[in-house]
Amino acid sequence: MSAHISNVRPKPDKVLTLIADYATKQPIKSAEAYETARYCLMDTLGCGLEALEYPACTKLLGPIDPETIVPHGAKVPGTKFQLDPVQAAFNIGAMIRWLDFNDTWLAAEWGHPSDNLGGILATADWISRNSTPLTMRDVLTAMIKAHEIQGVLALENSFNRVGLDHAVLVKVASTAVVAHMLGCGYDQVVNAVSQAWVDGQSLRTYRHAPNTGSRKSWAAGDATSRAVRLALISKTGEMGYPSVLTAKGWGFYDVLFKGKEFKFQRKFGSYVMENILFKISFPAEFHAQTAAECAMSAFQQMKSLGKTAEDIKKVRIRTHEAAIRIIDKKGPLANPADRDHCIQYMVAIPLLFGRLTAADYEDDVAKDPRIDSLRDKISCVEDKRFSTDYHDPKKRSIANALTVEFKDGTKLKEIVCEYPIGHKRRRKEGMPMLVEKFKRNLARRYPERQQRAILDLCMDGERLANTPVNEFVDLFVV
Question: Which terminal residue of the chain, N or C, has fewer Cβ atoms less than 10 Å from its own Cβ?
Fold first, then answer.
């Protein structure tokens, strides 16, 4: 017996039409946004290339059936895989997010808008190998719009406070821009976005004790690949669900958002890409980036004084509320996913060794008993001003301050860092370092000539914009 489907359809929820209007109709006129998106493209792909050095990531990659061949499929950078666009999106998305080193957006909700590149690049490459090629300008435009949809929704709406993972916003943003790239009409884009909201959404439990685990490293790949699938379904003419958010009793607001409607701080434009936070120095949860910078500074000062971590009596971290809620952890840490979300661990490593790399979260480093001994001496306290400035749209600081006290009664003067190296306020300082990070990551996978060809193209904004997507992706094949 089939369910009765009413012929009376409500008008689409306003949020659906706002997203669809922006995705399909609004031009991007900001040169700054395109310039930032070009750097974001480089950094995001570089993060994916570094992740390929970790078997825990690579075991998840490739086709679902090893015998599958997709002659005109999307290629996965840094690998030999050529896949259907849904599976390619998962592969690229999982690589990008694996080491927690790609960009970040911090607001009422947190997230990593470059996660959307998994679906965007896979779809654009697949289209380009099967019909008229898209250009990398189309990819950059889609990146700007996906960043904006995810980031603006995150400004005033906290999904974490109702236990949902921020990957829901990756799914929604990717669905909107990918549906448009696929040639969906306006109504089909509305339908596709409604499908993204109607999905069951991921719980955040894999990001928090006692369940912290590696799913947090492939959740974005899952979300952006699901977006491609939903967009393809909607392109067939499959119906949507116009009151998916507002339906009484059965809509997203009532079921999953405690009856509250989404709030919007600003209209969609290019604000998020222009203000995105890059992780340049450390593969660490972003609320700890400035704490790690402070710890590196403290290490150098200790070195000049002839002191080591063994001389430390206690360390106080003055921080913001979000950091305390997410990464202030005591007790055993189960795995790398647990460690890169512990501010005490991310401060202890620089204080001990004068570095913080992806390898420092692995078991062979973590077993050093000095790390947990030092973690026990590190405590966090909230600074209300830091919390206020974190939410101020004119500041968007991610402040931490470190005070190191020694067993002999002396202490270092408090070290304060309000804006990390990847912040918009430090773009001039940060972008050359971001390019160096990209160079290091290219060198992990490619011979020198191939590295140079990729870098030269990426550093030439006009030539990159005009390059067909499939030709760009072909440069990344091993």
Answer: N
As given in the structure block, the two tokens for residue 114 are 């470059």
Place of tokens 């290219």: 442
Burial category of 149 from C-beta neighbours within 10 Å (exposed 0-12, middle 13-18, buried 19 and up): buried
Q: What's the pLDDT band for 284 if we cut at 50, 70, 90?
A: confident
Number of neighbours of residue 137 by Cβ within 10 angstroms? 18
Weakest-pLDDT range from 3-7, 280-284, 323-327, 425-429 = 3-7
Mean pLDDT, the chain, rounded, equals 96
Cα dihedral 79→82→84→88 (10° resolution): 10
> Which pLDDT tens digit goes with each residue over 258-274?
999 999 999 999 999 99
Q: For residue 203, what are the β-bridge partners?
A: 164
Average pLDDT, integer, range 201-230:
95
Is the pLDDT at 393 greater than 90? The verdict is no
CA atoms within 13 A on the CB side of 443: 6
pLDDT band at 298 (very low <50, low <70, confident <90, very high): very high
Confirm if 422 and 289 have CB atoms less than 8 A apart: yes
Cα Rg, the chain, nearest whole Å? 22
Read off the pTM.
Answer: 0.91
pLDDT at 305 over 80: yes
What tokens appear for 273 in the block?
Answer: 């890409």
User: d(Cα 314, Cα 6) in Å, to the nearest integer?
Assistant: 66
Determine the angle formed by the axes of helices 427-443 and 31-51, rounding to 10 degrees.
40
Cis link prior to 210 (omega < 30° from 0)?
A: yes
